[in-house]
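Input/output pair, single chain:
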Amino acid sequence: MKKILSGMRPTGKLHLGHYLGVIKNWLELQEKYDCKFFIADWHALTNKYKESHELKENIRQMIIDWLSCGIDPQKATLFIQSGVKEHAELSLLFSMITPKSWLELNPSYKDLKFNLYYQYLRDFLTGKQVKIIQTPPPESFDEAVKKATGKQRNKIFEEYLREAFHRAFYNQKGIDFKGLKDVLIKLGIQKRIVEEAVRNLEEGDVGKDIDTLGFLAYPVLQAADILIYKADAVPVGEDQLPHIELTREIARRFNNLYREIFPEPEAMLTEASRLPGIDGRKMSKSYNNAIYLSDSEEEVNHKVLQMKTDPQRIRKTDPGNPEVCIVFDYHKIFTGDENILKDIDAKCRNAQIGCVECKKILADNLNQFLSPIREKRKEIEQDIEKYEKVFIDGTLKCREIAEGTMKEVRDAMNLYGNF
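Output:
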């Protein structure tokens, strides 16, 4: 049977985005394959090392969330990364043979730094209520902006901002801050705001949390996580493909240098439903825009009522456009009946249903989806020690497997450790 390995970092409560992006896929995989799912607490420290006091509670909440959603310890092995010290040993040995350039040129590492800086810039400008193009942008975008309205116009601004920052960030000599300033001013942003934003990027602490050896080398630890169990495949999204390729390269290099021990795992591409937060941005704890798996019925109702809708629909009598409405994005996932979806779409376009009524339908469907998860959660919380033991047992089982692999590795590398 094909061996599958996958993990999640315990950085906070799980939300609907996590369910659709990871958990839903795991529920299908555990029915077909030999799966190992682990809580990646060491990986959580790569950029959350200052928040280690939250780690134990985050692990506890992740245990509850996984089991509440139906991840079954009878069908998959569940464990905690730091309980299997052999991961760290293998990571150290892999670091001896992994060229530094492989890590520095890893597009995921560069992209994470880019996204951190860019996210800061965008959030700063949004916080200053710079949401639309205030003066005509460079000609390439001029016609598009004239035709666009509302949400489309904001999207054009963000796309151009991202393109401008991409060019500034990937300048060979470092970030081209002067060029960035010029572009932001051309986009119609006040010079005072531009200078403050760019100064914060130049002088602030943005990005400092990932300027560590642990963050640079985390793909090596990730390779150890996968290869120590000789996994055949790893479920990932497209953005994680470079990590799997690096794991394959490390396995290949080890096998060539010493002897063949590790298979080269395949990437198992997964299709994840893209679910925005209630404000339209990426769903995230840091944005305070997430609907959590642990939210009560009242919390869900309140958050759904806060959702942004078609910005051009000011009054109930105005026709709406579901294609630019976050609420309808949720309906497409959680309102399963195709006829109901078509009905909501038509009534919105013809102003036969108001946004509040539409949101109430969505809230009912979301609460119906979350109801069995809430019930299971109550059961688990009443006897949490029993369910934590499930992960302890899984961790002990994985230790035995990992130690078996490490005996092969130590022998292949002529290390004095097998006694």
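The mean pLDDT is 87. The radius of gyration is 24 Å.
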